[in-house]
Amino acid sequence: MKAILELSQKTITLERNEFLKVKGSIDTNVYYVDSGSLRAFVLDDYEEQTIRFGYQDNFIASLDSFLTGKPSELFIQAIKRTVVKVISRKQMDSFLQADANRKVWIEVLENLVSQQIEREIDLLTNSPRERYLRVLNRSPQLFQEVPNRYIANYLRMSPETLSRLKKVKS
Amino acid sequence: MPTEKLIQLLLEQTRKILNQAEKLKDQDLVSLTWREAPTSWNILECLEHLNLYGHFYLPQIESKIAQSTTKPEAEFRSGFLGNYFAQTMLPKEKLNKMSTFKNKNPLNANLDKSVIDEFIHQQIKLLDLLNKARTVSLNKVKIETTLSRFLRLKLGDTFPFLINHMIRHFQQIDRIQAKRKAA
């Protein structure tokens, strides 16, 4: 992981609510979150759906653009003041020439696939309470770093339902 | 210019404008309504001026795209007039002042911060329209200008025209902020 970070020669600082990426852009970079947090969401006719969060010491990307070089629907927005390291597709490609590096990258991708499966189960879980508990157990960090309204949107419930569920727990 | 290249350029310019507006949201009303002289605009008036143009163009662009039966094309060729319009909007090295139309002048309109929300809302709409523009011909779809129903620009020239106009007024906003600091 450290080897991947060392590729980066550029950082971007975003203030709260600033956009790293907007709908329809081709963004083939991978970003490493040095500090702060971001959210990736889609927007259709003015309804937002949060897809993923990026926290400190994690990667965030428009993986669809990264893999295909095509436009991606995703918006990526800073939730608070955020600093990211930029790793371009080109830097990544030359990094992946070496077998040892490819191994590291495969680990990152495998990790991502299992996260995606967890997320798919979240989305297909009917009970709001179950969805809440799954995410709470998996990512307690989320509840420290991200405002309620974004977590509620991520969990596909109203902010009121989320705060009710949080009270029941404690 | 390849159409997708143009759309990518415009999306990126709009992203930057959107971020500048997000930053303004964190400023207090005193700085947002500061003006250098009684007849010069404050920051909110600059944004309201842009909103007035957005009100005119964005709904029209939306309905023209929705109604169009044209097919997307790989290349966009700027029209003579459209290119001229878009280029004159861009700020020059040395400030080239322009006068505004009376119905687009918000001086002393007594504005509040909701102007910024409206502006941001319009930029999200603009992003949406830039995406929808991929489904039609940027050469053949024509947009009427505020000057005349008969003076029409290609859709592919209308977007740069609108965005350059915003870039121009965001430079004005930068100047207002610099002057306030110096005052």
Largest β sheet strand count, sense and barrel closure of chain B? 2 strands, antiparallel
Shape field of chain A: globular
- First-to-last CA distance of chain A: 37 Å
> Please, what is the average pLDDT of chain B?
91
Helical coverage of chain B, percent range: 55-70%
Residue share in helix of chain A: 40-55%
What structural class results from the helix and strand content of chain B?
A: mainly alpha
> Any idea what the radius of gyration of chain B is?
17 Å
Kindly provide the name of the CATH class of chain B: Mainly Alpha
The ordered H/E elements of chain A are HEEEEEEHEEHHHHHH
Structure description:
By secondary structure, chain A is α+β, with helices and mostly antiparallel strands. Chain A is 46% helix and 25% strand. Chain A has 8 helices and 8 strands. Chain A has a 4-stranded antiparallel β-sheet with strand order 1-8-3-6. In chain A, strands 2-7-4-5 form a 4-stranded antiparallel β-sheet. In chain A, a hairpin with a 2-residue loop joins β4 and β5 (47-54). In chain A, α7 (148-154) crosses α8 (159-169). Chain A is globular, with a radius of gyration of 17 Å. The model of chain A has no long low-confidence stretch (mean pLDDT 92). Chain B is mostly helical and 183 residues long. Chain B has one domain: dinb family like domain (Four Helix Bundle (Hemerythrin (Met), subunit A)). Chain B is built from 6 helices and 2 strands, in the order αααααββα. Chain B has a two-stranded antiparallel sheet with strand order 1-2. In chain B, β1 (142-144) and β2 (152-154) form a beta hairpin. Chain B is elongated, with a radius of gyration of 17 Å. The termini of chain B are far apart. The model of chain B has no long low-confidence stretch (mean pLDDT 91). The interface between A and B is medium-sized, with 15 and 19 residues.
List its traits.
heterodimer; A: 170 residues; four-stranded antiparallel β-sheet; 8 helices; globular; B: 183 residues; mainly alpha; Four Helix Bundle (Hemerythrin (Met), subunit A); two-stranded antiparallel sheet; 6 helices
